[in-house]
Amino acid sequence: VVAARTPAKLDDAEAAIRARGLATPVLKVPTDVADADQCRRLVDQAVASFGRIDALVNSAYVPGRFEPIETADLDDWRRTFDVNVFGTMQLTQAVIPVMKGQGGGAIVMINSMVTRKPIPWQSGYAVSKSALTTATALLALELAPHGIRVNSAYMGWMWGPAVENYLREAAERQGTTIDALAAEVAKNIPLGRIPDDAECAKAALFLVSDYAGAVIGAALDVNGGEFLPR
User: Fold this and answer.
1) Is 101:118 a contact under the CB 8 Å cutoff?
2) N or C, which end of the chain is more exposed by having fewer CB within 10 Å?
3) Which residues does residue 4 pair with via DSSP β-bridges, in sequence order?
4) CA 115 to CA 113: how far, in whole Å?
5) 125 is an active site residue
6) Dihedral sign from CA coordinates of 8, 11, 13, 16
7) Catalytic: which of 125, 154, 166, 211?
8) Residue 53 in contact with residue 93, Cβ under 8 Å?
């Protein structure tokens, strides 16, 4: 089951699955997680199609404005929280009764290295993800007795459309190239390059898989070594 606000993204996801020659059934449900009714509709359609929900990967987010806290538009913070925190919680709440009824499941929150290694001017986004950190810890404790595992993957730089667009805009402002900016970013990553979206997604797949059957409340850092927790 794939869900996003933009239907074209769902079509792209299905096309990527088909390009691999897979006959996997794909349910596409356009969903804005900031809307509780749409969250419930997504869950209802998933259960109607497949009978159960084994895993939920919460990756919907908005970046918010890049600006200093001193002059930040706090209404923009509220909009950012509506998706990154409240939207994530709304979809999670909609899934929990299903997972309890079937005897368990797994939930993964896609979080961000920016909460570990703050970057100036990303305040609204970073604060929202920090709030998600605490909510996830509480969920992990509350849901473990029901066989529902809750964990987080803290992503660093990931090469894909979002980072490419960000670097393109930055390159235009600074009068340089995307490749030059990407090379500067890579200098701080011991891996020697910016990991791509697909390889980072595998960390989330690990956390929802049986290989992580005893992993609860974990914070898995997926950043090529740029941030090493102590």
Assistant:
1) no
2) C
3) 30
4) 5
5) yes
6) negative
7) 125
8) no
Report how far apart, in Å, the C-alpha atoms of 69 and of each of 72, 120, 166 are: 5, 9, 20
> How far, CA to CA in Å, does 131 sit from each of 84, 89, 194, 229?
9, 11, 26, 19
Q: By CB neighbour count within 10 A (0-12 exposed, 13-18 middle, 19+ buried), where does 210 fall? A: exposed
**β-pair partners for 3:** 29
Q: What is the pLDDT along the chain (230 residues), one digit of tens a residue?
A: 999 999 999 999 999 999 999 999 999 999 999 999 999 999 999 999 999 999 999 999 999 998 999 999 999 999 999 999 999 999 999 999 999 999 999 999 999 999 999 988 889 999 999 999 999 999 999 999 999 999 999 999 999 988 998 899 889 989 999 999 999 999 999 999 999 999 999 999 999 999 999 999 999 999 999 999 87
Within 13 Å of residue 229, how many CA atoms lie on the same side as its CB? 11
* Closest among 121, 23, 12, 137 to 71, alpha carbons compared: 121
DSSP bridge pairs for 214: none
Residue 84 half-sphere exposure, CB side, CA atoms within 13 Å? 24
CB 129 within 8 Å of CB 58: no
| pTM as predicted | 0.93
